Amino acid sequence: MARTRDQAPSARATVKQTAARADYEAETVYAIIDQALVGTVSIAMDGQPFALPMMVARIDDQIYLHGSRTSRIIKHLTAGNEVCVAFTIIDGIVVARSGMNCSANYRSVVVHGKGTAVEGAEKAELLHQITYTIIPGSKGDYREHLPEELKATSLIRIPLNEAASKVRVGGPKDDKDDVALPHWAGVIPLTHVYGEPLPAADLPAGIETPEYALKFPLKN
Amino acid sequence: MARTRDQAPSARATVKQTAARADYEAETVYAIIDQALVGTVSIAMDGQPFALPMMVARIDDQIYLHGSRTSRIIKHLTAGNEVCVAFTIIDGIVVARSGMNCSANYRSVVVHGKGTAVEGAEKAELLHQITYTIIPGSKGDYREHLPEELKATSLIRIPLNEAASKVRVGGPKDDKDDVALPHWAGVIPLTHVYGEPLPAADLPAGIETPEYALKFPLKN
What we know:
The structure is a homodimer. Chain A is of the alpha+beta class.
């Protein structure tokens, strides 16, 4: 993916509403997906929409999701059907002088594409990489996958060549005539804060909390 | 909506994967939607899934979303087609002794249903109510809607009679044999914190920051 900010990759990936907020550059798309960690995975089945939040990891210009081989969505994606994955981070509530101009500051990405099931040694290796991507710096702090785990789990790869981000920042955009009204206007910022790690109740004595947990998320 | 925790409202609303985490009670569903503020709205159009994050307000046993009358999703919902709306709040990263048992603590709701376009005086009144719902305690701090705003904006109502929540809490659930391994395990909690309100750059002098912004979100 190497496009300019305004260069949409396809018709369906083009942001239509408030198009000035659209951004198709990889750097923006990657940063939002990487922070979001969870995406809403949507499919169309028998003409009906189904959506489910799932953990999603980005590696290079692909995203990966995994789940039980028996899951409805995973089976649908393994069969090569279309998928849409949406990521959203809310950064604040925008209060305007009119209800219609109230809004939210947010960063979102919508990905359109088809999934591919990854199998064999590549799957086992990528399932580790996904964990290190979601929990940066934790490499090596896990046991090896078991054959029955690999058998029960499907890994789906979706390319990011049809991804678009949309970002709203800043204060309210009120109608010119409204600015003098005696109503408060501004932004209530929302931040997402990782706190002090809580060791598992059954953690054996002597295992210290690692840096990757204390300073989550470490830069990869 | 008045069901017990285990009573799914329909086949498609029944949680299939890790069904023990499912909860169909209104109180749980309402609390998650009310905190999330933004839902991912998914539709199936010509066999393809389309998803978009939108601000969603819950009033009683319905959710409401609004948008430009010309928007693709709004037009699709106004025509009475199926919709799926997903809400997700992530509460932490769960680190296990194996990559496969790593997880996230989360609260999610998935709503299936059909939208109805609300029109006329009810629409104007509900559009105000939606603002007071998203920004509790702000009633009266806005100018009246303009006729051209009401004309350009569609309001869609979706009932919550087919809603299911799914909640994961607590520490890692490792395989029994893994507990003694020399790997750290636990939860890295994630909290969502509203900060000090930032007044708009063009706010006239003398307008104080209201309590609804200082203590966001006030209880309604």
